[in-house]
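All the exercises in this workshop are built on plain-text protein records. An example says more than a description, so a record of this kind follows:
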Amino acid sequence: MRWSVLAIGQRMPHWVEAGWNEYERRFPRGFDLQLRELPAAKRSRNADIDMIRTREGESLLAAVPNSDRVIALDENGKQWSTAELADHMRQWMQHGENVSFLVGGPDGLSQPCLDRSDHCWSLSRLTFPHPLVRAVLAEQLYRAWTVTQNHPYHRE
């Protein structure tokens, strides 16, 4: 079983990498959590945002293995509680499913990415800068995983 975070953008600030690495290392050996960074399209003052979003979406979809369950992180998605995320995780683990989480660039995900997704998940009603989403996502995945393991990290 593999969980992949496919994210637009490379060369993140140190604090983003440190946040991701902190939670990635907390998972036990044999738990396969991966971060795959894909290049962001070039942006200029007069850039065609729809075209950029389309190019980045094509890159994300090309990186998703056909058999993966796909979770799109999108501000218009459904918000999950920690317990709901843990329930989803239990199902994925029980079925041995590989999961790909799609994190778009500054302009979000393309419609084909949303259409390909099995779930559209919003981390919050707040808008986060896309680099921050990586650190928050890693922590939330770890938190929900600890719930599935009856680990004391999450306190209700």
User: Anything to note?
Assistant: The chain has a mean pLDDT of 93. The chain has one domain: 2-148. Strands lie at 2-8, 32-38, 69-79, 99-103, 119-122. Helices lie at 14-26, 49-63, 82-94, 111-116, 130-148.
